[in-house]
Write a sequence for this structure.
């Protein structure tokens, strides 16, 4: 009966043994495996999600999680508790981020990375009032910029722009503190939820609003002024990038656009390279732009034509 | 030892106290805080997700959740139970939505909002057979419109178009009943999952299909006829909007396109303003269109040119 | 008091009874209901998510889940255990997929579908080393292609491109084995997370990278060579499709582009129809292309114009 | 560095390999391993918990789970839905129970056990009205018997006696239908929660109440009449049991007490063997009884004495 | 095929319909159903568990949940936040408890019960410092009384006595405030975990310790002095209770023992009736006692005898 | 309106502030708070539960968790993976246990405790084959000893005795390795589930069976031979314990019974002090025994008497 049973097994002994051999051969895994030399685990997406939920609750009292029942007279307690909790969670994940490739090779744990994580955490937390200030301008911009918005509160609770920017503004502060890895994870988490992909290195001014948001891409070295509004599908990208001697892109070169104050860029426009969009300009939808434009420019796509290739088919 | 320990603490006493002071100052939080005067909590995203799961199970018997084992002879029980459950969940969330800024200022709870929530719930539920009918036409349209679809069932189970429209058609009925806030939350939930962003106020006819879907945006006052098909990245947006005396956009003005029956709009096309796309028209991909076109138009983007700026670099 | 209470109930008896009647009428549900004749349940999204988590952990040792603590000396045990677990989960879901419309009509369960599911599972598992090899080239491509990437590991852990391709390369192998339904569910799961929508039938070469990713669409019959890079919003779609006598699109006809090796296609470009993009070509952003281009072509959108319609309004 | 790292690993390669060898040797596992020849999994404690929650909700409308909002006008829907759900869950677990050692050795699944499980499920369900009747008498007995009870409802919601008896009366019906294994699991689940251990084979009359309950034990062949009340720590056990030729206890022989109607047995009393406690008797606390007593007996422990051994120590 | 399928269904149409009829007949459910006239739901066991977890964390800083990382310098924030959270949870559950049978019959919700719940919550919270004081004496008693205990902390973290008493001392304060139903639920929750069943009405002095605990029962009107120690299986119960004219036990009469200070009662002793155990007494194991004993008594069970009934059998 | 709202708040500002002051005063918390000087958290009950589930799955292949589908040909992989997983979990919890009061006072983490935890983990794991052997004898004893058991497998899956002993035998090995705190937590977890409380320090021979189990207590220094069977409510306790000069019980003195091989002790018997129960003895139910008895003794409680105090009342 043993034989019979084995024959019905989904995966037989010889197959599983052969596959284990293949998948455990160093030449199979060496380019896709990660090994922590300090037994420090990978950053945890669940923990970072929880951290962001805590920070979101703390930044917007009365809306989310443990602080969803806002009363001024008890606010101090909840803010203090949330700060303490967030500090521990952040320090733990930063340690993991620093240790991800610190390559020190010493013993269990990595006290250097732990120390650095605590310092960065403290500096970061002291930036929270500033982060809240920036987000408050983003909330106002979302309300002012969308005729469908009924109240600023609505944009805090359900607009992709504010949700993404909460992650982004946290990630950007960490990026400024030379934290590796974690900032990008935070923006990717919000990218997955909103379809917005602003690199944590981008410099973004006050009152930023991304209407609808899906497909927006803003590169690492982009500089965006105050009161800028982007619509879905806008790209502020790199035109091309110089290669090093191995033919790989040189990292860290300014290569994305500078967008000055009070600019509006409509859906699907693509602006590439270290160009400057002068203040007060309006860029039309679907425009492809690789040159600087002076302040108060009005740029639009070429006029659409009548059909010339659409005959004779279903389309 | 106490001192030592404290020095190692992630966040020291003076830092946390200072941050609490800053973050609890009214000038810090007043623009980002929400206060419920009736102790009615914010709408719950978890509860609304569960509501939608219940409605989805109920609308598409045999596919989801508690109704996933469809048999005609027991269907009545499951439909009745799901209706009863959904009615309670919806009434609760509607109460929260109404009370979010009813500003009545009386005592705990808000019996006016509760009463209104119950009435709206009843009216909404009586629209469920109609909602199912509309969705059945959307399912057929998805099957007919996608050569990769093997069966209508496949589109119910896994197509973003049908998933989004389930949320949308529910949200739209609530929008018609003057429910604030909740409809937008429902479409944003589906926006996050699918990348499709159709405002709950948009009027959408039967047999609507959005292939792939990511990046589609349809504005609040858009009117879409029967048998319309959109591809990914299509925008039916506002060209500009009149401002009020404070320079803020006037709300509620018709400002989005009218798309008549049997129109197809290909990927990335952007149509802005209160223009009319005549019935049977086909709009090509990436087109930027701000004018009305007559029935049966064929519109395409300008012919692409040879490269003129692409020399000498990696791109 | 009974009457009173009933009046307050959210949904009264007569309403619920009437709605149950309407919603349980065959003419209401027949186009949106699914009935399994073998009492085989629908595929489970939760189980498929768990399967993908197991495969992801197995393919990238040291990064995820149960294999997140990589050590060569214990790898065999974890790989073997994960393989055994994955085989059971996959066979179960494949059975459901085959049985979804096998329409055999015999008794409980469907031994034919179970047998086929086991065979397909075995064949699929033996392809895992190859899948890992392909993904290792995709990881390298992501690292090489993005100046913002600090290490290949970072792209494994957080880049949408690698995440989508993990689901895709699994789904594609199942597609090649004539598995219905399941492959599309797997890519839709990743579509929801990343905004990338590559049909599981597409043929994708080694070293594939989709930067940012949101809005990318690649159709079922597309053929993509080695070392191809796409940016967000790129469409490799069908121009139109021949209809059958009922006016419905003919299924299975090659209708999507062929993209040869070493091609780069920038953000928002739309390429439609069975055209060929010659090897080494670069297609500019927002281009609309429906014709083949020879190797090493450089294609860009028409030059943007000065504003001619933007006067007098907010835009 | 590899060596170093390995030295720090919690469990080194040679240790894990040696342990795997030892633990996978048949002589190590053969007495503690279970092998399903039909790939039918073990009964699931989680599923049985969920089944009991469903039945509990169904039996006591208005108290638990999906039926916790009782209204007569919608009760039918919830009862029907819960019955349908319970029937599927029970049939699945019964199949596993039957197949646990059916030893048939044929192919995947075991259609014989499935068929039998369906039949037993149907018969069991038709006993539900009777089970509810019995429980309604138990509820009344708990209320009548405990001066601390404020309402019958309180005993349904929080008394160990009613909670245990709900599992027991379900398990007993399954026991009568010759279901192996599952009945005992159901009573053990409730044993763990309440400290009460009544074997599912015991025959228990109406109006049964176990006050406090912890430590009560009632054996498989016990017979308990109507209106019996037990206090904590009461044992209705076997005095001794005849052995078979291998010296193992003979199974299935009547070996536990018969307790007639209207008997009260106080805390800690131990009654052993096939004795009869005549109707209306009262057995005092801590009594050890191995003989039958006539109706209306009053039995108490020997009178306590003064201390004779307690001098000179802490006690 | 329909017929065939139906025949295989676990539960056929006629059976389910018949069972629904039976189970929805008022005569079937009327003695086991609960109906809330105010649409106020039943107390939630999950919420009460969470409440107790919050109070446990708050009472024992550094051990549990959100307060498990104790530092004096941030304690205020966590205590304040936990108090605010606990107050909301308690008020909600008390409302449900009061409304369970307030029978007022007016409209949705019950503002009277809500008001009363808020008042009781406030009074209860102001008793928390006292509750903590009592528990601190219980912790010390557990440490002093058990030679196996290595530290007081160990008893806080894992001893059944302290765990039960945490629930009990909370429940007792609520009992003193005339809260119905909820106190008993709280002690039953701990009864299920520990096997200890002390009624919330019992008056228990400082430094109370129940070693091992399983099977201990203390009745509603018991009075226990300071520094009392009980071992497993001890009962402080009622001997009998006067009946009212319907033959049902009169509620609220003092009927359980008074145990004075510094008494030790060993395992399995049963003390029944309104008797007094004088201070400093020691009651031996398994004693059955229904009379008062003077201070400093030493009471033991009758001396065991040689076997007289054990011949000739396995025992 | 602010005032009004505040008046309705469950807990007002002055109350919460006052309570925070009281509860954060050192004199309030100092006897109930725990402070980790190394920022090493408390042991986690959830993690220890998960550890026990992993060990249980590993010890009894084919019954539980990840190893519930037993096949000899893949067993090695699952055993190896489970061992590796268990080793990490155990080392982490042991570190917490050692550090709970190591009081070293140095920096974050405690490398000494970590090192010791790793060593103990390795030693413990090498005892697993022996633990499995002991449990296999316990399984056999449960099957042999209970006429109601249908198969040894049934006792593995659902008998309290085997469940408790799994935790106990693991805890006992850790106790022998001088692990503080954790062993007691493991037995208390099983105590809560089964009502059995055997101290991890007790020495228990092979083939141990506790029928029903509720209320059994075995003390730290008890010695139990092979093939011993206990029934519910049996106590092997201390009679009294010498006090130190502060009047607190001296810890670590042999103070519990020695029970030799082949002894049976029936329900509710209480055996106290360092007495010896000679091999082959049978102790009757409810016996109170504080003296040694020779081999093959038969001990029973005094003969019950006729009622002398039961007249004239309900009992």
């Amino acid at each position: 009966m043993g034989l019979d049973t084995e024959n019905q097994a989904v995966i037989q002994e010889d197959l599983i043994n052969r596959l284990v051999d293949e998948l455990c051969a160093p030449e199979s895994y060496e380019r896709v495996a990660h090994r922590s030399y300090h037994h420090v685990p990978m950053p945890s997406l669940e923990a970072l999600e929880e951290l962001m939920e805590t920070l979101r609750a703390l930044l917007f009292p009365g809306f989310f999680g443990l602080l969803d029942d806002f009363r001024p007279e008890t606010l101090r307690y909840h803010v203090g508790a949330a700060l303490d909790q967030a500090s521990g969670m952040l320090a733990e994940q930063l340690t993991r981020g620093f240790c991800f490739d610190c390559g020190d090779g010493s013993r269990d744990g990595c006290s250097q990375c732990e120390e650095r994580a605590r310092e960065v955490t403290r500096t970061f937390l002291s930036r929270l009032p500033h982060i809240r200030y920036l987000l408050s301008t983003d909330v106002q911009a979302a309300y002012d910029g969308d005729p469908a918005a009924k109240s600023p509160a609505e944009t805090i609770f359900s607009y992709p722009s504010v949700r993404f920017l909460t992650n982004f503004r946290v990630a950007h502060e960490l990026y400024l503190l030379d934290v590796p890895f974690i900032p990008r994870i935070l923006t990717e988490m919000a990218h997955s939820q909103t379809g917005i992909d602003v690199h944590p290195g981008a410099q973004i001014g006050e009152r930023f609003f991304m209407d609808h948001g899906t497909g927006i891409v803003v590169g690492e070295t982009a500089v965006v002024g105050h009161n800028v509004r982007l619509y879905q599908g806008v790209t502020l990208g790199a035109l091309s990038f110089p290669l090093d001697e191995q033919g790989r892109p040189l990292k860290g070169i300014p290569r994305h656009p500078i967008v000055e104050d009070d600019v509006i860029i409509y859906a699907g426009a693509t602006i590439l390279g270290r160009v400057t969009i002068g203040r007060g300009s309006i860029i039309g939808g679907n425009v492809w732009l690789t040159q600087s434009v002076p302040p108060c420019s009005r740029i639009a796509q070429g006029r659409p034509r009548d059909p010339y290739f659409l005959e004779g088919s279903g389309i």
Summary: Chain E touches chain A at residues 66, 69, 74, 76-85, 88 (CB under 8 Å).
